Amino acid sequence: MKSRKRKSEAATSEGGRAKEKPQPVSTVVLASHCAVKDAVALKTSLSAVAAEALPVILDIGNVQRVDTATVQLLCVFAKDRRARGLKIEWRGASAVFEEAVKLLGVGLLLGFPDAGATV
Fold first, then answer.
1. Does the pTM exceed 0.90?
2. Number of compact structural domains in the chain
3. Which end of the chain is more exposed for a tag (fewer CB within 10 A), N or C?
């Protein structure tokens, strides 16, 4: 799991000057294999961005394998962010991750796209 910050593109006005200052965006990239043995590293990455005011992006595009412990950790993170009035955005697509979310019925808790499709 990597945590990185990148700057969003600033809106520009005539003359190429930025109208507003670029703000950092925090992204946590999930590893291809998300298992309980990797939970400490994921927790560290999530903890580093838990209080970020801007939405935190969770990139699941690399996920090829995920276990229940990882999904539970993400649920706690999502619940904490929601309690603080902060948002999560999902990036990438992973059929394995989406199936785990559906199977566990935690789509709404995670704020996952197409959460209405979960049971």
1. no
2. 1
3. C
The two tokens of residue 36 are 């309980």
Rounded-to-integer distance, Cα 46 and Cα 56, Å: 9
* CATH assignment of the domain containing 67: 3.30.750.24
Residue type for 63, please? Answer: V
Nearest 5 degrees, angle CA 51-CA 53-CA 55? 100
Percent of the chain with pLDDT over 90: 72
